[in-house]
Amino acid sequence: KGPFHISKGNLQKYLGVPKFIAEMDQEDSQIGLSTGLAWTQVGGEVLYVEATLIQGKGELIITGQLGEVMQESARAAVSYARAHLSFFGLEENFFENTDVHIHVPAGAIPKDGPSAGIAMATALISVLTNKPVNKYVAMTGEITLRGRVLPIGGLKEKALGALRAGIKTIIIPEKNMKDLTEIPANVKRKIKFLMVKNMKEVLPIAIDGYTVNEKK
Q: In CATH, what is the architecture of 29-206?
């Protein structure tokens, strides 16, 4: 019988050990690893996206139990990167003998939705440019073939999830500016929200040392 005094120190006593631990929450900034944001029925959370290149025939491999919409986002992200290879200092035939593998960890958990599009593109372009994605930057936004960043839902929940994960900057679509009014003041004091219209604005924020190195 109560009353009970619940604190951070005794929370585990009442709720037990944490059921899930973010797979990569202790990682340093890495090449090919970006941080997206997901909305779930129990709130927002970070969503890690991995990309790598392997010898092959120009195919796309997608793993992590992704739904059809999320798979389409991965295809759009890869198509954007392939259409802009010259911006990364690469030859147009770069992918003729190279496969792209995109993986979203926690493979036992189904995932879907378009909002990880810019995180997928960022992870891949990080590999193509050989520069790491800043681990303190998270992003959410749908990507188009031309690199436009389209609005998403659940920004408040995603921001709260980012705060719990120690994120310092969130990249959001410009058209989600109106949703910032719903973000609690304490979250806005601790996290910087940067609004973007396209991938050209995303990359210098998310990728450490990113510069356009267009091949002539």
A: 2-Layer Sandwich (3.30)
